[in-house]
Automatic annotation (TrEMBL):
Keywords: Signal. The active site is at 224 (proton acceptor). InterPro entries: ConA-like_dom_sf (IPR013320), Peptidase_G1 (IPR000250), Peptidase_G1_sf (IPR038656). This is Uncharacterized protein. GO terms for biological process: proteolysis. The keyword Cell wall biogenesis/degradation does not apply. It comes from the Eukaryota. Residues 1-21 form the signal peptide. Residues 42-67 are annotated as: Disordered. It holds the Pfam family Peptidase_A4. PANTHER family: ASPERGILLOPEPSIN, PUTAITVE (AFU_ORTHOLOGUE AFUA_7G01200), PUTATIVE (AFU_ORTHOLOGUE AFUA_3G02970)-RELATED. GO terms for molecular function: glutamic-type endopeptidase activity.
Amino acid sequence: MNLTTLVHYFLLLAASSVADGQQHGVPSLSRKERAAALRDEHFGIPTKKSSPPLSHPLQSRDLKPSSPGVSYHWAGAVVPPPSGENITSVTSTMTLPELTAPDDVREGPGGEYFLYVWVGIDGLESVDPGDCNSLWQTGFAGQIKNGVTTWWGWVCYLWDENEDAVFDTYILDASSGDTVNMTVQALNSSEGVFWLDNLSTGNSTSYPVTGGGLCMQQAEWIVEDPWAGGTEAIAYMLVWPDFGTMTFDNAVAYTDKGTSVTPTGTGSTQYVVESYYDNNITQNSVSVTDSSVSVTWLESGPGTKLGASSDA
């Protein structure tokens, strides 16, 4: 166990007095309860009847058939560990951009545009349905409304898509132009710590996690076009803003064997987002190096209705 892992481990032990499911005073909620709480707390929402934007695992239904690397809401890179090893940490730094409304007819609901940028472990459904639906992720939410860009730090972890999840936001302030660091560290499949650092302001926060079980088989650097679940069991893809190019710098993951896993590692897949209903709209491009993942905005798809929401 290296020094960094040891420090994180003792921080986790210090947090163990907190009751299961209680981190930073936030209870473990069902996804439906979480959505209701967030709607009332702080999110700008597309309509008066809608739930807040939700980050979501990438399942088989979210992938374009016969088109590897095309999804409906994840853009970025996903890399597995070497055979027989487990991902134990993933990290990156990024300078948060100023967001602008797209220069086309894609108007966001309520004049709002929204995205998530995060690093994570697991959440990509593997060959056998149901595998690796657990997802640990931390990063920043970006919103533009009335021409004003707002950024804030958040964490999300869920053990299974149909079970409890915790989604905690506004845990770290940030602004356009700030350089931030995002880290997810798994001490094992059910204990870990999330870290967010605003390197421009010097502020940081850590967030201990206990419970559930990861597969520890994917590292991710993702810009996400989230969706919002409505009260009528309907999910809507939100319209993401023009973000220029967002680059995950110093992007690296590590395994339980101490192996470094880079964005260009064996088995790496780069994902682009296509509009759910209009497959002619490719919304971004992706490029990777041994230490970076760059996601470039190309176009924003419409805010589309997806059908029955699994959160209803």
